[in-house]
């Protein structure tokens, strides 16, 4: 089973003209992107996520601001990631419970491996633990 890990994206440009990060060609991400969405204007005291997926893999990018991401794998391993650069993303595999907390002006881009499907979500933590309890 894959674990969450950070990805570094190529940074193109110069300080006097600005920069861009590029995902160009196959093999840069561990999956083909089937959906993308972004979150913004999330109050700092709100914790988003609080779910896992049966199949969907994601890459989370803080295109602005800072995002604290906590992941928990079925075996109980917990990791905390700080996303604060648009040049870096976090791979979140299927089966990983994850939460996000945002700085005031954070904008999060999410690249997903599947189209939206509500049955793919596990939104109850106890169900998450029961679903993959044999992995712990």
Automatic annotation (TrEMBL):
The organism's place on the tree of life at top rank: Bacteria
Pfam families: FdtA
Sugar 3,4-ketoisomerase QdtA cupin domain residues: 6-130
InterPro entries: QdtA_cupin_dom, RmlC-like_jellyroll, RmlC_Cupin_sf
Protein name according to UniProt: WxcM-like domain-containing protein
């Amino acid at each position: 089973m894959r674990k969450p890990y950070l990805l570094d994206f190529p940074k193109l440009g110069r300080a006097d003209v600005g920069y861009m990060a590029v995902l160009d060609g196959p093999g840069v991400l561990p999956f083909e992107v089937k959906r993308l969405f972004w979150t913004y204007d999330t109050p700092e005291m709100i914790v988003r996520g609080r779910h896992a997926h049966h199949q969907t893999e994601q890459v989370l990018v803080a295109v602005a601001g800072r995002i604290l991401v906590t992941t928990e794998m079925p075996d109980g391993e917990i990791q905390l990631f700080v996303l604060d650069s648009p040049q870096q993303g976090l791979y979140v595999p299927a089966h990983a419970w994850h939460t996000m907390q945002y700085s005031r002006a954070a904008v999060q881009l999410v690249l997903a491996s599947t189209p939206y499907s509500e049955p793919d979500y596990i939104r109850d933590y106890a169900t998450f633990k029961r679903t993959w309890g044999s992995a712990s």
